[in-house]
Design goal:
single chain; mainly alpha; 6 helices; 2 strands; 3% strand
Protein backbone atom coordinates (compact mmCIF):
# COMPACT_ATOMS: atom_id res chain seq x y z
CA UNK A 1 0.00 0.00 0.00
CA UNK A 2 1.39 3.39 -0.98
CA UNK A 3 1.56 6.04 1.72
CA UNK A 4 1.97 9.79 1.37
CA UNK A 5 4.48 11.75 3.43
CA UNK A 6 1.60 13.10 5.53
CA UNK A 7 0.33 9.59 6.27
CA UNK A 8 3.82 8.44 7.23
CA UNK A 9 4.24 11.49 9.45
CA UNK A 10 0.94 10.77 11.20
CA UNK A 11 1.68 7.07 11.67
CA UNK A 12 5.34 7.44 12.67
CA UNK A 13 4.98 10.46 14.91
CA UNK A 14 7.70 12.23 12.93
CA UNK A 15 7.13 15.56 11.27
CA UNK A 16 7.15 15.96 7.49
CA UNK A 17 10.27 18.05 7.99
CA UNK A 18 11.96 15.20 9.92
CA UNK A 19 11.05 12.70 7.19
CA UNK A 20 12.61 14.93 4.54
CA UNK A 21 15.68 15.31 6.75
CA UNK A 22 16.01 11.53 7.16
CA UNK A 23 15.76 11.17 3.39
CA UNK A 24 18.39 13.88 2.73
CA UNK A 25 20.72 12.24 5.25
CA UNK A 26 20.35 8.86 3.52
CA UNK A 27 18.85 7.22 6.58
CA UNK A 28 16.11 5.24 4.86
CA UNK A 29 16.91 1.58 4.26
CA UNK A 30 15.43 1.90 0.77
CA UNK A 31 15.48 5.01 -1.38
CA UNK A 32 12.24 6.96 -1.11
CA UNK A 33 10.29 6.46 -4.29
CA UNK A 34 8.61 9.31 -6.11
CA UNK A 35 5.69 9.63 -8.51
CA UNK A 36 6.12 11.34 -11.84
CA UNK A 37 4.91 14.59 -10.23
CA UNK A 38 7.71 14.34 -7.60
CA UNK A 39 5.51 13.36 -4.66
CA UNK A 40 7.15 10.94 -2.26
CA UNK A 41 5.70 7.46 -1.91
CA UNK A 42 6.37 5.31 1.14
CA UNK A 43 5.54 1.71 2.00
CA UNK A 44 4.92 -0.26 5.18
CA UNK A 45 8.56 -1.40 5.32
CA UNK A 46 9.57 2.28 5.38
CA UNK A 47 7.48 2.71 8.53
CA UNK A 48 9.07 -0.37 10.07
CA UNK A 49 12.52 1.01 9.30
CA UNK A 50 11.61 4.44 10.68
CA UNK A 51 10.59 2.79 13.96
CA UNK A 52 14.05 1.19 14.18
CA UNK A 53 15.86 4.31 13.01
CA UNK A 54 14.12 6.61 15.49
CA UNK A 55 14.95 4.20 18.33
CA UNK A 56 18.58 4.16 17.29
CA UNK A 57 18.55 7.95 17.14
CA UNK A 58 16.79 8.36 20.50
CA UNK A 59 19.35 6.01 22.05
CA UNK A 60 22.04 8.49 21.08
CA UNK A 61 23.35 6.76 17.98
CA UNK A 62 24.94 9.37 15.74
CA UNK A 63 23.63 10.04 12.26
CA UNK A 64 26.97 8.86 10.88
CA UNK A 65 26.65 5.55 12.71
CA UNK A 66 23.04 5.07 11.56
CA UNK A 67 24.14 5.88 8.03
CA UNK A 68 26.92 3.30 8.32
CA UNK A 69 24.42 0.70 9.52
CA UNK A 70 22.04 1.55 6.66
CA UNK A 71 24.83 1.30 4.09
CA UNK A 72 25.83 -2.12 5.41
CA UNK A 73 22.22 -3.30 5.34
CA UNK A 74 21.76 -2.03 1.79
CA UNK A 75 24.74 -4.10 0.64
CA UNK A 76 22.82 -7.19 1.62
CA UNK A 77 24.15 -10.49 2.93
CA UNK A 78 27.77 -10.96 3.81
CA UNK A 79 28.38 -8.14 6.28
CA UNK A 80 26.22 -9.31 9.16
CA UNK A 81 29.24 -9.51 11.47
CA UNK A 82 30.03 -5.83 10.80
CA UNK A 83 26.43 -4.84 11.52
CA UNK A 84 26.44 -6.96 14.65
CA UNK A 85 29.66 -5.34 15.87
CA UNK A 86 28.27 -1.86 15.21
CA UNK A 87 25.11 -2.69 17.17
CA UNK A 88 27.09 -4.28 20.01
CA UNK A 89 29.34 -1.21 20.30
CA UNK A 90 26.31 1.02 20.49
CA UNK A 91 24.56 -1.26 23.00
CA UNK A 92 27.67 -1.04 25.20
CA UNK A 93 27.53 2.75 24.89
CA UNK A 94 23.83 2.81 25.83
CA UNK A 95 24.48 0.56 28.83
CA UNK A 96 27.21 2.95 30.01
CA UNK A 97 24.79 5.86 29.63
CA UNK A 98 22.18 3.97 31.65
CA UNK A 99 24.70 3.32 34.44
CA UNK A 100 25.62 7.00 34.47
CA UNK A 101 21.96 8.02 34.53
CA UNK A 102 21.27 5.59 37.38
CA UNK A 103 24.10 7.14 39.38
CA UNK A 104 22.73 10.60 38.59
CA UNK A 105 19.25 9.51 39.63
CA UNK A 106 20.65 8.20 42.91
CA UNK A 107 22.23 11.60 43.62
CA UNK A 108 19.02 13.40 42.66
CA UNK A 109 16.95 11.18 44.96
CA UNK A 110 19.37 11.91 47.82
CA UNK A 111 19.05 15.65 47.19
CA UNK A 112 15.25 15.38 47.03
CA UNK A 113 15.26 13.49 50.34
CA UNK A 114 17.45 16.15 51.97
CA UNK A 115 15.23 18.95 50.67
CA UNK A 116 12.04 17.14 51.71
CA UNK A 117 13.41 16.62 55.22
CA UNK A 118 14.43 20.27 55.55
CA UNK A 119 11.13 21.55 54.14
CA UNK A 120 9.10 19.19 56.36
CA UNK A 121 11.00 20.43 59.45
CA UNK A 122 10.60 24.05 58.38
CA UNK A 123 14.37 24.34 57.98
CA UNK A 124 14.64 24.98 54.24
CA UNK A 125 16.70 28.08 55.02
CA UNK A 126 19.41 25.76 56.33
CA UNK A 127 20.12 24.27 52.92
CA UNK A 128 23.43 25.14 51.33
CA UNK A 129 23.39 28.72 50.10
CA UNK A 130 26.28 29.70 47.81
CA UNK A 131 25.72 33.42 48.46
CA UNK A 132 26.20 33.08 52.23
CA UNK A 133 29.66 34.31 53.38
CA UNK A 134 30.42 31.12 55.32
CA UNK A 135 29.51 29.01 52.27
CA UNK A 136 32.05 30.95 50.19
CA UNK A 137 34.71 30.23 52.83
CA UNK A 138 33.81 26.53 52.79
CA UNK A 139 34.04 26.48 48.99
CA UNK A 140 37.51 28.06 49.08
CA UNK A 141 38.53 25.45 51.65
CA UNK A 142 37.36 22.73 49.26
CA UNK A 143 34.39 21.59 51.32
CA UNK A 144 30.78 21.69 50.26
CA UNK A 145 28.18 21.35 52.89
CA UNK A 146 24.58 22.10 53.56
CA UNK A 147 24.27 25.61 54.92
CA UNK A 148 24.23 26.41 57.70
CA UNK A 149 26.05 23.36 58.98
CA UNK A 150 23.90 20.88 60.90
CA UNK A 151 23.68 21.51 64.63
CA UNK A 152 25.77 19.29 66.83
CA UNK A 153 23.63 16.78 68.73
Amino acid sequence: MDLSIGEVAARSGLSVHALRFYEREGLFANPVRRLSNGRRIYHEEDLEWLAICTRLRSSGMSLAMIRQYVELARRGPGNEHERLELLRRHADHVEAQIRELQETLHVMRQKVRIYEEHVDRGEADRLWNPSHPDAARAARAGTRQEWPPPREA
